[in-house]
Specification:
Keywords: Cell membrane, Membrane, Transmembrane, Transmembrane helix
Number of domains: 1
Protein name: Cation:proton antiporter
Family: Belongs to the CPA3 antiporters (TC 2.A.63) subunit C family.
Shape: elongated
CATH class: Mainly Alpha
Strand content: under 5%
Distance between the termini: 57 Å
InterPro entries: CPA3_antiporter_subunitC, NUOK/Mnh_C1-like
Subcellular location: Cell membrane
Largest sheet: none
Number of helices: 3
CATH architecture: Orthogonal Bundle
């Protein structure tokens, strides 16, 4: 299971990096989404995968007994999901505004932000 998640994380990182380096705004946004999901899965994998074993201290014991799932990575992932959604929403609004202002979604054509296209003035 851990090997499968490692392969999936690697594929998501590769796809996200590839898409972020493309010229289209939509592809950049999808690349950011893939990178965020890859980071979340990697943190989840680091926190040990256990099936059906909650991270509770049994009554009468002083500490957890093996195997248990580490709750800290799960809390970090929940926080990361919220922050990632905010960053994705901000990037979407920023790129939409740039598209409306410059009239193109090609990032190579968005070289100059000082001068507006002639038809936009």
């Amino acid at each position: 299971m851990t090997f499968l998640l490692a392969v999936i994380v690697g594929a998501l990182y590769a796809a996200g990096t590839y898409l972020v380096l493309r010229r289209s705004i939509v592809k950049v946004i999808f690349g950011l989404i893939f990178l965020g999901h890859a980071a979340n899965l990697m943190i989840f994998t680091v926190g040990r995968l256990t099936k059906g074993v909650p991270a509770f201290v049994p009554e009468g014991a002083e500490m957890l007994t093996e195997p248990f799932a580490d709750p800290l990575p799960q809390a970090l992932i929940l926080t990361s999901i919220v922050i990632g959604f905010g960053v994705q929403a901000f990037a979407l609004v920023l790129f939409k505004r740039a598209y409306l202002t410059l009239g193109t979604e090609d990032l190579d054509k968005m070289r100059s932000t000082d001068q507006l296209p002639e038809e936009r003035l």
